[in-house]
């Protein structure tokens, strides 16, 4: 299973989500891969926001080596599941999809925690609420892992 986490700039939400899922994959011994990307290229080549790095460090995760990159058309074929942090990200991802198979891979991450609610992971870039975002993503990723494990993917 190859999973891609996607937010706007790939410096806050998606790097945190990537770090959380990598941690759970390692702990559970799952043969999954995870990466992250952004729908914009504003921060290409940069590391995650230092506030995200510090928060993750306090939670036992090191996301400091991640590097921001923009989502590409190739990602749509390479990944089995593409998880958007909000509806804007979702719309931008599906706008570059060329096939229904690609579109079917794109989901809102919080729908794993709150099915069919289409809720957004708030962007902590401006409000600094990284702890709340981490906790929300941690819960959603627990539900994601349970769901995918139950499906034996």
In short:
The protein is an alpha/beta fold and 153 residues long. Helix content is 46%, strand content 12%. It contains 7 helices and 4 strands.
Topology record:
Layout: E1 2-7, H1 13-28, E2 33-38, H2 50-58, H3 73-78, E3 81-84, H4 87-95, H5 100-104, E4 106-108, H6 124-127, H7 130-150
Parallel strand pairs: 1-2, 1-3, 3-4
Overview of the structural elements:
- With 153 residues, this protein is of the alpha/beta class.
- The chain has one domain (2-148): Response regulator (Rossmann fold).
- 46% of the residues lie in helices and 12% in strands.
- The protein has 7 helices and 4 strands; from the N terminus they run E-H-E-H-H-E-H-H-E-H-H.
- The protein has helices at residues 13-28, 50-58, 73-78, 87-95, 100-104, 124-127, 130-150, and strands spanning 2-7, 33-38, 81-84, 106-108.
- Strands 2-1-3-4 form a 4-stranded parallel beta sheet, sandwiched between helices.
- The longest helix is centred in the last third of the chain and has 21 residues, at 130-150.
- The termini are close together.
Main traits of this protein?
alpha/beta, 153 residues, 7 helices, Rossmann fold
Assign an overall shape: globular
CATH architecture: 3-Layer(aba) Sandwich
CATH superfamily, by name, is Response regulator
Q: Order of strands across the widest beta sheet?
A: 2-1-3-4
Q: What average pLDDT do the residues reach?
A: 96
């Amino acid at each position: 299973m190859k999973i891609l986490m996607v937010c706007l700039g790939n410096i806050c939400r998606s790097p945190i989500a990537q770090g959380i899922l990598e941690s759970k994959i390692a702990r559970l011994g799952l043969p999954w891969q995870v990466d992250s990307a952004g729908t914009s290229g504003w921060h290409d080549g940069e590391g995650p926001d230092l506030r995200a790095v510090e928060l993750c460090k306090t939670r036992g995760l090191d996301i400091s080596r991640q590097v921001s990159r923009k989502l590409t058309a190739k990602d749509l074929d390479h990944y089995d599941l593409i998880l958007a942090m909000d509806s804007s990200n979702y719309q931008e991802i599906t706008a570059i999809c060329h096939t229904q198979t690609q579109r079917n891979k794109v989901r809102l991450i919080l729908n794993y925690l709150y099915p069919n609610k289409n809720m957004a992971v708030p962007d902590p870039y401006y409000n600094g609420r990284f702890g709340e975002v981490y906790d929300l993503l941690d819960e959603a990723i627990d539900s994601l892992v349970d769901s995918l494990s139950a499906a034996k993917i």
